[in-house]
Amino acid sequence: MNDMLLQVEPLIPALRRYARALVRNHATADDLVQDCLERAVSRWHQRREGDARPWLFTILHNLAVNQFRQAKTRGQHVTIEETSESDLGEDAVQERKLMYQDVLNKLARLPEDQRAVLLLVAVEDLSYADAAKVLNIPVGTVMSRLSRARERLQQEIEGTANPPSANVVPLRSLK
Amino acid sequence: MSQRPITEDDLHAYVDRVLEPERQVEVASYLEAHPDVAKRVTAFSDQRDLLRTALAPIADEPLPAELNLSRIIENRRRRRSPAWWAVAAMLLVSIGGISGWIARGSMEVPSSGLAALAQEAAYSYNVYAPDRVRPVEIRASDSAQLVQWASNRLHQPVKVPDLATAGYRLMGGRVVATSHGPAAMFMYDDDHGERLVVLTRPMATDQGAPMTPQRSGDVAGFAWADGGMGYSLVGQSPTEALRPIANEVRRQARTI
Questions:
Q1: Which of residues 70-89 of A touch B (CB under 8 A)?
Q2: Where does B113-254 sit in CATH, by number?
Q3: Relative to the CA of A157, which of A99, B58, B131, B183 has its CA 20 to 30 Å away?
Protein backbone atom coordinates (compact mmCIF):
# COMPACT_ATOMS: atom_id res chain seq x y z
CA MET A 1 0.00 0.00 0.00
CA ASN A 2 2.79 2.37 0.93
CA ASP A 3 4.53 1.65 -2.33
CA MET A 4 1.34 2.52 -4.18
CA LEU A 5 0.91 5.76 -2.26
CA LEU A 6 4.48 6.77 -3.07
CA GLN A 7 4.14 6.02 -6.76
CA VAL A 8 0.59 7.13 -7.48
CA GLU A 9 0.05 10.19 -5.32
CA PRO A 10 2.59 12.47 -7.04
CA LEU A 11 0.90 11.73 -10.38
CA ILE A 12 -2.61 12.83 -9.40
CA PRO A 13 -2.16 16.50 -10.43
CA ALA A 14 -1.01 15.41 -13.89
CA LEU A 15 -3.90 12.95 -14.23
CA ARG A 16 -6.27 15.76 -13.34
CA ARG A 17 -4.72 18.07 -15.88
CA TYR A 18 -4.95 15.46 -18.62
CA ALA A 19 -8.55 14.61 -17.81
CA ARG A 20 -9.64 18.22 -17.72
CA ALA A 21 -7.87 19.15 -20.94
CA LEU A 22 -9.34 16.08 -22.64
CA VAL A 23 -13.00 16.30 -21.56
CA ARG A 24 -13.00 20.05 -20.86
CA ASN A 25 -15.39 19.79 -17.97
CA HIS A 26 -14.15 20.25 -14.44
CA ALA A 27 -16.60 17.96 -12.64
CA THR A 28 -16.56 15.19 -15.25
CA ALA A 29 -12.78 15.25 -15.31
CA ASP A 30 -12.44 14.92 -11.54
CA ASP A 31 -14.99 12.08 -11.54
CA LEU A 32 -12.88 10.28 -14.12
CA VAL A 33 -9.74 10.75 -12.06
CA GLN A 34 -11.50 9.49 -8.94
CA ASP A 35 -12.71 6.45 -10.86
CA CYS A 36 -9.19 5.94 -12.15
CA LEU A 37 -7.67 6.09 -8.66
CA GLU A 38 -10.22 3.64 -7.27
CA ARG A 39 -9.39 1.20 -10.02
CA ALA A 40 -5.68 1.74 -9.52
CA VAL A 41 -6.04 0.93 -5.83
CA SER A 42 -8.02 -2.24 -6.44
CA ARG A 43 -5.77 -3.43 -9.29
CA TRP A 44 -2.40 -2.38 -7.99
CA HIS A 45 -1.37 -6.02 -7.54
CA GLN A 46 -2.22 -6.77 -11.18
CA ARG A 47 0.02 -4.06 -12.55
CA ARG A 48 2.83 -5.29 -14.72
CA GLU A 49 6.26 -4.26 -13.46
CA GLY A 50 7.65 -0.88 -14.32
CA ASP A 51 6.61 2.72 -14.33
CA ALA A 52 3.18 3.43 -12.87
CA ARG A 53 2.72 6.50 -15.07
CA PRO A 54 1.70 4.90 -18.39
CA TRP A 55 -0.39 2.38 -16.45
CA LEU A 56 -2.38 5.12 -14.71
CA PHE A 57 -2.78 7.17 -17.86
CA THR A 58 -4.03 4.06 -19.64
CA ILE A 59 -6.74 3.49 -17.02
CA LEU A 60 -7.72 7.15 -17.13
CA HIS A 61 -7.70 7.34 -20.91
CA ASN A 62 -9.89 4.24 -21.26
CA LEU A 63 -12.38 5.65 -18.76
CA ALA A 64 -12.47 8.92 -20.70
CA VAL A 65 -13.03 7.09 -23.99
CA ASN A 66 -15.89 5.09 -22.45
CA GLN A 67 -17.34 8.31 -21.18
CA PHE A 68 -17.19 9.87 -24.67
CA ARG A 69 -18.75 6.75 -26.14
CA GLN A 70 -21.57 6.61 -23.62
CA ALA A 71 -22.30 10.28 -24.06
CA LYS A 72 -22.52 9.67 -27.80
CA THR A 73 -24.80 6.63 -27.67
CA ARG A 74 -27.08 8.36 -25.18
CA GLY A 75 -27.10 11.33 -27.52
CA GLN A 76 -25.84 13.49 -24.70
CA HIS A 77 -23.01 15.89 -24.79
CA VAL A 78 -20.59 16.51 -22.04
CA THR A 79 -20.93 20.20 -21.50
CA ILE A 80 -17.79 21.83 -22.68
CA GLU A 81 -16.74 24.61 -20.40
CA GLU A 82 -15.19 27.69 -21.80
CA THR A 83 -12.02 28.21 -19.90
CA SER A 84 -12.81 30.63 -17.13
CA GLU A 85 -10.23 33.07 -15.97
CA SER A 86 -10.07 31.45 -12.56
CA ASP A 87 -8.67 28.36 -14.24
CA LEU A 88 -5.66 30.32 -15.27
CA GLY A 89 -2.75 31.68 -13.34
CA GLU A 90 -3.62 34.46 -10.90
CA ASP A 91 -0.73 36.70 -11.70
CA ALA A 92 -0.74 36.30 -15.45
CA VAL A 93 -1.40 39.52 -17.21
CA GLN A 94 -4.77 39.88 -18.91
CA GLU A 95 -3.39 39.60 -22.39
CA ARG A 96 -1.63 36.34 -21.62
CA LYS A 97 -4.75 34.98 -19.96
CA LEU A 98 -6.67 35.59 -23.12
CA MET A 99 -3.97 33.90 -25.14
CA TYR A 100 -4.08 30.78 -22.94
CA GLN A 101 -7.84 30.67 -23.04
CA ASP A 102 -7.71 31.00 -26.78
CA VAL A 103 -5.29 28.12 -27.34
CA LEU A 104 -7.33 25.82 -25.10
CA ASN A 105 -10.49 26.66 -26.98
CA LYS A 106 -8.66 25.88 -30.20
CA LEU A 107 -7.31 22.65 -28.81
CA ALA A 108 -10.89 21.67 -28.02
CA ARG A 109 -11.70 21.79 -31.74
CA LEU A 110 -9.28 18.97 -32.49
CA PRO A 111 -10.68 15.45 -32.80
CA GLU A 112 -10.41 13.49 -29.52
CA ASP A 113 -7.67 11.16 -30.70
CA GLN A 114 -5.47 14.05 -31.88
CA ARG A 115 -6.07 15.99 -28.69
CA ALA A 116 -5.18 12.96 -26.59
CA VAL A 117 -1.86 12.31 -28.29
CA LEU A 118 -0.83 15.97 -28.20
CA LEU A 119 -1.65 16.26 -24.50
CA LEU A 120 0.13 13.04 -23.56
CA VAL A 121 3.28 13.87 -25.47
CA ALA A 122 3.59 17.66 -25.37
CA VAL A 123 2.07 18.38 -21.96
CA GLU A 124 2.38 15.21 -19.88
CA ASP A 125 5.84 14.34 -21.23
CA LEU A 126 5.08 10.71 -21.96
CA SER A 127 7.56 9.08 -24.29
CA TYR A 128 6.23 8.13 -27.73
CA ALA A 129 6.37 4.48 -26.68
CA ASP A 130 4.38 5.13 -23.51
CA ALA A 131 1.83 7.22 -25.39
CA ALA A 132 1.45 4.28 -27.79
CA LYS A 133 0.76 1.99 -24.83
CA VAL A 134 -1.79 4.36 -23.33
CA LEU A 135 -3.63 4.76 -26.63
CA ASN A 136 -3.16 1.11 -27.57
CA ILE A 137 -1.79 1.99 -31.02
CA PRO A 138 1.59 1.48 -32.72
CA VAL A 139 4.28 4.12 -32.23
CA GLY A 140 4.09 4.97 -35.95
CA THR A 141 0.45 5.91 -35.49
CA VAL A 142 1.35 8.06 -32.50
CA MET A 143 3.80 9.95 -34.71
CA SER A 144 1.38 10.49 -37.57
CA ARG A 145 -1.41 11.49 -35.20
CA LEU A 146 0.91 13.89 -33.38
CA SER A 147 1.88 15.41 -36.70
CA ARG A 148 -1.76 15.85 -37.72
CA ALA A 149 -2.62 17.31 -34.32
CA ARG A 150 0.15 19.90 -34.56
CA GLU A 151 -0.70 20.88 -38.13
CA ARG A 152 -4.35 21.15 -37.26
CA LEU A 153 -3.77 23.21 -34.13
CA GLN A 154 -1.48 25.50 -36.11
CA GLN A 155 -4.21 26.02 -38.68
CA GLU A 156 -6.64 26.83 -35.88
CA ILE A 157 -4.16 29.30 -34.43
CA GLU A 158 -3.51 30.93 -37.78
CA GLY A 159 -7.20 30.98 -38.52
CA THR A 160 -6.82 28.94 -41.69
CA ALA A 161 -8.54 25.79 -40.43
CA ASN A 162 -11.27 24.31 -42.56
CA PRO A 163 -14.56 23.42 -40.95
CA PRO A 164 -14.15 20.34 -38.73
CA SER A 165 -15.66 18.04 -41.36
CA ALA A 166 -12.86 18.62 -43.86
CA ASN A 167 -9.87 16.43 -43.26
CA VAL A 168 -6.51 17.95 -42.78
CA VAL A 169 -4.01 16.67 -45.25
CA PRO A 170 -1.07 15.44 -43.27
CA LEU A 171 2.17 16.97 -44.44
CA ARG A 172 4.12 14.16 -42.88
CA SER A 173 6.32 12.38 -45.35
CA LEU A 174 6.81 8.66 -45.11
CA LYS A 175 9.87 7.36 -43.42
CA MET B 1 30.52 12.54 -42.31
CA SER B 2 27.46 10.96 -43.84
CA GLN B 3 24.29 12.04 -42.16
CA ARG B 4 20.96 10.24 -41.99
CA PRO B 5 18.22 12.26 -43.67
CA ILE B 6 16.04 14.32 -41.35
CA THR B 7 12.53 12.88 -41.00
CA GLU B 8 9.25 14.39 -39.84
CA ASP B 9 9.59 12.23 -36.74
CA ASP B 10 12.94 13.91 -36.02
CA LEU B 11 11.27 17.30 -36.20
CA HIS B 12 8.63 16.30 -33.66
CA ALA B 13 11.22 14.70 -31.41
CA TYR B 14 13.19 17.96 -31.71
CA VAL B 15 10.13 19.91 -30.59
CA ASP B 16 9.57 17.45 -27.73
CA ARG B 17 13.27 17.56 -26.79
CA VAL B 18 13.72 13.83 -26.83
CA LEU B 19 16.46 13.54 -29.46
CA GLU B 20 19.92 12.24 -28.71
CA PRO B 21 22.29 15.22 -28.32
CA GLU B 22 24.12 14.50 -31.61
CA ARG B 23 20.87 14.24 -33.54
CA GLN B 24 19.63 17.41 -31.87
CA VAL B 25 22.66 19.22 -33.32
CA GLU B 26 22.05 17.72 -36.77
CA VAL B 27 18.42 18.80 -36.77
CA ALA B 28 19.35 22.28 -35.54
CA SER B 29 21.82 22.78 -38.38
CA TYR B 30 19.29 21.41 -40.87
CA LEU B 31 16.77 23.98 -39.60
CA GLU B 32 19.28 26.76 -40.02
CA ALA B 33 19.58 25.87 -43.66
CA HIS B 34 15.82 25.43 -44.18
CA PRO B 35 13.97 28.50 -42.88
CA ASP B 36 10.55 27.27 -44.05
CA VAL B 37 10.81 24.07 -42.07
CA ALA B 38 12.31 26.02 -39.18
CA LYS B 39 9.26 28.28 -39.16
CA ARG B 40 6.95 25.29 -38.80
CA VAL B 41 9.08 23.73 -36.09
CA THR B 42 9.16 27.02 -34.18
CA ALA B 43 5.39 27.21 -34.45
CA PHE B 44 5.08 23.67 -33.00
CA SER B 45 7.46 24.58 -30.19
CA ASP B 46 5.43 27.68 -29.41
CA GLN B 47 2.25 25.57 -29.34
CA ARG B 48 3.89 23.22 -26.91
CA ASP B 49 5.00 26.03 -24.61
CA LEU B 50 1.62 27.71 -24.80
CA LEU B 51 -0.28 24.51 -23.98
CA ARG B 52 2.01 23.69 -21.08
CA THR B 53 1.72 27.16 -19.58
CA ALA B 54 -2.02 27.32 -20.15
CA LEU B 55 -2.60 23.95 -18.48
CA ALA B 56 0.00 24.21 -15.72
CA PRO B 57 -2.33 25.92 -13.19
CA ILE B 58 -4.63 22.85 -13.17
CA ALA B 59 -1.86 20.73 -11.71
CA ASP B 60 -1.25 23.36 -9.04
CA GLU B 61 -4.81 23.40 -7.75
CA PRO B 62 -5.26 21.84 -4.32
CA LEU B 63 -6.70 18.33 -4.64
CA PRO B 64 -10.32 17.95 -3.59
CA ALA B 65 -11.06 15.41 -0.84
CA GLU B 66 -12.41 12.88 -3.37
CA LEU B 67 -8.99 12.69 -4.98
CA ASN B 68 -7.13 12.13 -1.74
CA LEU B 69 -5.48 8.78 -2.30
CA SER B 70 -5.10 7.88 1.38
CA ARG B 71 -8.81 8.45 1.77
CA ILE B 72 -9.63 6.29 -1.25
CA ILE B 73 -7.50 3.47 0.16
CA GLU B 74 -9.14 3.88 3.58
CA ASN B 75 -12.68 3.87 2.14
CA ARG B 76 -11.94 0.75 0.22
CA ARG B 77 -10.60 -1.00 3.31
CA ARG B 78 -13.71 -0.02 5.23
CA ARG B 79 -15.98 -1.24 2.46
CA ARG B 80 -14.22 -4.58 2.36
CA SER B 81 -14.33 -5.16 6.09
CA PRO B 82 -17.26 -3.11 7.35
CA ALA B 83 -17.29 -2.19 11.03
CA TRP B 84 -20.43 -4.20 11.68
CA TRP B 85 -18.57 -7.29 10.62
CA ALA B 86 -15.94 -6.65 13.28
CA VAL B 87 -18.65 -6.01 15.87
CA ALA B 88 -20.48 -9.19 14.90
CA ALA B 89 -17.27 -11.18 15.08
CA MET B 90 -16.50 -9.80 18.53
CA LEU B 91 -20.01 -10.62 19.72
CA LEU B 92 -19.67 -14.15 18.45
CA VAL B 93 -16.38 -14.55 20.20
CA SER B 94 -17.71 -13.17 23.48
CA ILE B 95 -20.92 -15.20 23.39
CA GLY B 96 -18.87 -18.10 22.24
CA GLY B 97 -19.83 -21.75 22.32
CA ILE B 98 -22.93 -23.14 20.69
CA SER B 99 -24.67 -19.88 19.80
CA GLY B 100 -21.57 -18.67 17.99
CA TRP B 101 -21.26 -21.94 16.16
CA ILE B 102 -24.89 -21.83 15.05
CA ALA B 103 -24.66 -18.22 13.90
CA ARG B 104 -21.58 -19.14 11.95
CA GLY B 105 -23.69 -20.98 9.42
CA SER B 106 -25.35 -17.78 8.24
CA MET B 107 -21.98 -16.20 7.44
CA GLU B 108 -20.57 -19.18 5.68
CA VAL B 109 -20.16 -19.25 1.97
CA PRO B 110 -23.05 -20.73 0.04
CA SER B 111 -22.60 -24.49 0.22
CA SER B 112 -24.11 -25.58 -3.06
CA GLY B 113 -25.49 -24.49 -6.39
CA LEU B 114 -24.46 -21.64 -8.64
CA ALA B 115 -23.61 -19.29 -5.79
CA ALA B 116 -21.10 -21.80 -4.44
CA LEU B 117 -19.59 -22.22 -7.90
CA ALA B 118 -19.24 -18.47 -8.38
CA GLN B 119 -17.68 -18.19 -4.93
CA GLU B 120 -15.14 -20.86 -5.86
CA ALA B 121 -14.36 -19.01 -9.08
CA ALA B 122 -13.82 -15.83 -7.07
CA TYR B 123 -11.48 -17.67 -4.69
CA SER B 124 -9.46 -18.93 -7.63
CA TYR B 125 -9.38 -15.45 -9.09
CA ASN B 126 -8.21 -13.94 -5.82
CA VAL B 127 -5.49 -16.52 -5.39
CA TYR B 128 -4.17 -16.93 -8.92
CA ALA B 129 -4.94 -13.73 -10.88
CA PRO B 130 -2.60 -11.53 -8.78
CA ASP B 131 0.18 -14.11 -9.09
CA ARG B 132 2.89 -12.53 -11.24
CA VAL B 133 5.15 -15.56 -11.20
CA ARG B 134 2.97 -18.56 -11.85
CA PRO B 135 -0.70 -17.71 -12.29
CA VAL B 136 -1.26 -20.92 -14.26
CA GLU B 137 0.12 -24.42 -13.94
CA ILE B 138 -0.01 -25.22 -17.64
CA ARG B 139 0.52 -22.46 -20.15
CA ALA B 140 -1.65 -21.80 -23.18
CA SER B 141 1.10 -23.18 -25.43
CA ASP B 142 0.42 -26.62 -23.92
CA SER B 143 -3.34 -26.32 -23.98
CA ALA B 144 -3.82 -29.87 -25.30
CA GLN B 145 -2.13 -31.16 -22.18
CA LEU B 146 -4.29 -28.85 -20.07
CA VAL B 147 -7.49 -30.16 -21.68
CA GLN B 148 -6.42 -33.75 -21.14
CA TRP B 149 -5.53 -33.17 -17.50
CA ALA B 150 -8.77 -31.32 -16.72
CA SER B 151 -10.93 -33.84 -18.60
CA ASN B 152 -9.31 -36.75 -16.73
CA ARG B 153 -9.77 -35.19 -13.33
CA LEU B 154 -13.33 -33.99 -13.95
CA HIS B 155 -14.33 -37.23 -15.72
CA GLN B 156 -15.93 -34.99 -18.31
CA PRO B 157 -14.76 -33.71 -21.67
CA VAL B 158 -13.60 -30.18 -20.99
CA LYS B 159 -12.99 -27.58 -23.67
CA VAL B 160 -11.02 -24.36 -23.28
CA PRO B 161 -13.15 -21.43 -24.42
CA ASP B 162 -11.56 -19.18 -27.04
CA LEU B 163 -12.17 -15.55 -26.08
CA ALA B 164 -10.04 -13.92 -28.77
CA THR B 165 -13.07 -12.15 -30.26
CA ALA B 166 -13.58 -10.43 -26.90
CA GLY B 167 -9.91 -9.41 -26.84
CA TYR B 168 -8.81 -11.93 -24.22
CA ARG B 169 -5.96 -14.39 -24.71
CA LEU B 170 -5.72 -17.69 -22.92
CA MET B 171 -2.84 -17.60 -20.42
CA GLY B 172 -3.35 -21.22 -19.37
CA GLY B 173 -5.00 -23.03 -16.51
CA ARG B 174 -4.91 -25.64 -13.80
CA VAL B 175 -7.04 -28.06 -11.85
CA VAL B 176 -8.12 -26.42 -8.58
CA ALA B 177 -9.65 -27.81 -5.40
CA THR B 178 -13.21 -26.92 -4.42
CA SER B 179 -15.45 -28.32 -1.70
CA HIS B 180 -17.20 -30.15 -4.56
CA GLY B 181 -14.11 -31.82 -5.90
CA PRO B 182 -11.75 -30.82 -8.65
CA ALA B 183 -12.59 -27.96 -11.01
CA ALA B 184 -10.85 -26.72 -14.13
CA MET B 185 -9.70 -23.13 -14.04
CA PHE B 186 -8.74 -21.21 -17.19
CA MET B 187 -7.20 -17.75 -17.04
CA TYR B 188 -7.21 -15.06 -19.73
CA ASP B 189 -5.78 -11.59 -20.08
CA ASP B 190 -6.18 -8.68 -22.45
CA ASP B 191 -3.73 -6.08 -23.72
CA HIS B 192 -4.18 -4.00 -20.59
CA GLY B 193 -3.36 -6.90 -18.29
CA GLU B 194 -6.96 -7.36 -17.17
CA ARG B 195 -7.43 -10.96 -16.15
CA LEU B 196 -10.48 -13.19 -16.30
CA VAL B 197 -11.06 -16.60 -14.79
CA VAL B 198 -13.38 -19.30 -16.10
CA LEU B 199 -14.09 -22.11 -13.65
CA THR B 200 -15.97 -25.26 -14.55
CA ARG B 201 -16.88 -28.44 -12.65
CA PRO B 202 -19.69 -31.01 -12.48
CA MET B 203 -22.70 -29.82 -10.47
CA ALA B 204 -24.44 -31.82 -7.74
CA THR B 205 -27.31 -29.35 -7.45
CA ASP B 206 -28.41 -26.79 -10.06
CA GLN B 207 -27.48 -29.13 -12.90
CA GLY B 208 -29.12 -26.84 -15.42
CA ALA B 209 -29.54 -23.26 -14.34
CA PRO B 210 -29.84 -19.97 -16.24
CA MET B 211 -27.02 -17.48 -16.22
CA THR B 212 -27.11 -15.22 -13.18
CA PRO B 213 -24.85 -12.37 -12.11
CA GLN B 214 -22.70 -13.08 -9.08
CA ARG B 215 -20.48 -10.96 -6.88
CA SER B 216 -17.98 -11.62 -4.17
CA GLY B 217 -16.16 -8.54 -2.94
CA ASP B 218 -14.29 -6.95 -5.84
CA VAL B 219 -14.70 -9.94 -8.06
CA ALA B 220 -17.88 -10.28 -10.07
CA GLY B 221 -19.20 -12.19 -13.03
CA PHE B 222 -21.71 -14.82 -14.04
CA ALA B 223 -22.50 -18.44 -13.26
CA TRP B 224 -24.72 -20.93 -15.02
CA ALA B 225 -25.08 -24.67 -15.51
CA ASP B 226 -25.71 -26.73 -18.61
CA GLY B 227 -26.16 -30.48 -18.76
CA GLY B 228 -24.69 -31.14 -15.32
CA MET B 229 -21.63 -28.91 -15.77
CA GLY B 230 -21.40 -25.61 -13.97
CA TYR B 231 -19.53 -22.62 -15.37
CA SER B 232 -18.51 -19.35 -13.83
CA LEU B 233 -16.74 -16.43 -15.45
CA VAL B 234 -15.37 -13.79 -13.08
CA GLY B 235 -13.11 -10.77 -13.22
CA GLN B 236 -12.76 -7.21 -12.05
CA SER B 237 -14.31 -5.56 -15.10
CA PRO B 238 -17.79 -4.08 -14.76
CA THR B 239 -20.28 -6.96 -14.62
CA GLU B 240 -22.14 -5.87 -17.74
CA ALA B 241 -18.92 -5.89 -19.75
CA LEU B 242 -18.51 -9.56 -18.81
CA ARG B 243 -21.99 -10.61 -19.91
CA PRO B 244 -21.22 -10.96 -23.65
CA ILE B 245 -18.05 -12.87 -22.77
CA ALA B 246 -20.02 -15.22 -20.50
CA ASN B 247 -22.52 -15.73 -23.33
CA GLU B 248 -19.65 -16.64 -25.62
CA VAL B 249 -18.25 -19.16 -23.11
CA ARG B 250 -21.69 -20.74 -22.79
CA ARG B 251 -22.14 -20.89 -26.56
CA GLN B 252 -18.79 -22.61 -27.02
CA ALA B 253 -19.31 -25.02 -24.11
CA ARG B 254 -22.55 -26.23 -25.66
CA THR B 255 -20.76 -27.39 -28.78
CA ILE B 256 -18.62 -29.95 -26.94
A1: 83, 87-89
A2: 3.30.200.100
A3: B58
